[in-house]
Write a structure and sequence with these properties.
alpha/beta; Aspartate Aminotransferase, domain 2; Aspartate Aminotransferase, domain 1; 2 domains; 7-stranded mixed β-sheet; binds pyridoxal-5'-phosphate; pyridoxal phosphate; pyridoxal phosphate binding; lyase; Cystathionine beta-lyase; cysteine-S-conjugate beta-lyase activity
Length: about 400
């Protein structure tokens, strides 16, 4: 089938078939997991010119090609690199496009380890780091300087789920010659395709929904035509390639990601709406809820929502937050999300410059897993009752 015809297929059809050509490998439905450092060349001349498709394990294998093709087709990108974690998928493009003396604008509701990298390593390398309000929209224009080289976005934001006006930000940033990056882990390319909205580089912690089972760490970075050569060159220079088994597990995860996401979406929305009615809950921070201040932007740009959001209790502090968390029996207390199981963590906003509330009580982040909604609600009722009693 021609590439353009393939792109017209429904999303679950594409997830089932993209990134593998069974007849290129004896008809096996799945591609081989190639474990490789050395690749042999047939003679000295081919070796001297490196004139063959695969030359060394760090530079790509049939396994990384399979996932790369699949992600490019989902993202609409010119190329995708695979790195050992979602955090590496953030740090490598920042290192690729920033040099000493450059200015970077980073959204204040960014994933905390991204901020930590910027505040430590980027600053040490002589990059000027500035955080901006997630609600800035076209107003980002006023913050752009002649040396602004990168505008980093994440929408919705980590933990507090503010929506950014990505097209407006991308337009202003591009006009000023800056590269626009987006951590798009929350939506996955199924519910938002950053490159279609003016973003240059789309970043994913594939650890989350693509892997889906809390047992794999992987990151992907996908670039448009203009940014791909530099991204790829940095990836090769750094030798920061992902292991073949992890790459394979993420390709395997993609096959069911559409179905899993639909379930996460449906359960999370039902629970979020229910939580809005529960005593002790002051706010539910989920952009697909009509009550969310960023709902109109979400509705305009996104085609779905995933399974992670936060709640703010209507008073109290750490004691109430701990009582809530300790009463949970189904939710695990632990970091990450996108797996099959429900998780809860307290949210820390002490490092924020702008997007720090105020919230009336502690903020708790909930990842809604694939368990039955009735059981999840009963667990949350236990948590809320314990918080009220604390
Ligand atoms: C928005 C976001 N980006 C990136 C990451 C990093 O992913 P990883 O855990 O694979 O390093 C996370 C992890 O929680 C995340 O929430």
């Amino acid at each position: 089938m021609a590439k353009t015809d393939k792109e017209k297929l429904g999303i679950n059809t594409r997830l089932a078939h993209t990134g593998n050509d069974p007849h290129a490998f004896f008809g096996f439905v799945n591609p081989p997991v190639v474990h490789a450092s050395t690749v042999l060349f047939p003679n000295a001349d081919t070796l001297a010119r490196r004139a063959q498709k695969y030359t060394y394990g760090t530079r790509g294998t049939p396994t990384t090609d399979a996932l790369g093709i699949a992600i490019d087709s989902l993202e609409g990108s010119a190329g995708t690199i695979m790195v050992p974690s979602g955090l590496a998928a953030v740090t490598i493009p920042l290192l690729a496009f920033l040099s000493s003396g450059d200015h970077v604008l980073i959204v204040d509701s960014v994933y905390h380890p991204t901020r930590n990298f910027a505040d430590t390593m980027l600053k040490r390398l002589g990059v000027e780091v500035e955080y901006y309000d997630p609600l800035v929209g076209a107003g980002i224009k006023a913050l752009l300087k002649p040396n602004t080289r990168v505008v980093f976005t994440e929408s919705p934001g980590s933990n507090t789920f503010e929506m950014q006006d990505i097209p407006a930000i991308a337009k202003a940033a591009k006009a000023a010659g800056a590269v626009v990056m987006m951590d798009n882990t929350w939506a996955t390319p199924l519910y938002f395709r950053p490159l279609d909205h003016g973003v240059d580089i789309s970043i994913h912690a594939s650890t989350k929904y693509p892997a889906g089972h809390s047992d794999v760490l992987l990151g992907t970075v996908s670039a448009n035509e203009a940014c791909w050569p530099k991204l790829h060159e940095t990836f090769i220079s750094m030798g920061c390639c992902a292991g073949p088994d992890d790459v394979y597990q993420v390709l395997r995860g993609l096959r069911t990601m559409g179905l899993r996401l639909e379930h996460h979406q449906k359960s999370a929305l039902e629970i979020a709406r229910w939580l809005e009615q529960q005593p002790g809950v002051a706010q539910v921070l989920h952009p697909a809820l009509e009550s969310h201040p960023g709902h109109a932007l979400w509705k305009r740009d996104f085609s779905g929502s995933s399974g992670i959001f936060s709640i703010a209790l209507d008073g109290g502090g750490q004691e109430q937050a701990h009582a809530f968390l300790d009463a949970l029996q189904i939710f695990g207390l632990g970091y990450s999300w996108g797996g099959y199981e429900s998780l809860a963590v307290p949210v820390f906003l002490g490092d924020r410059v702008v997007a720090k509330g105020p919230y009336p009580g502690p903020v708790l982040r909930l990842q809604i897993g694939l368990e039955d909604v009735t059981d999840i609600k009963a667990d949350l009722e236990r948590g809320l009752a314990a918080a009220r009693a604390a």
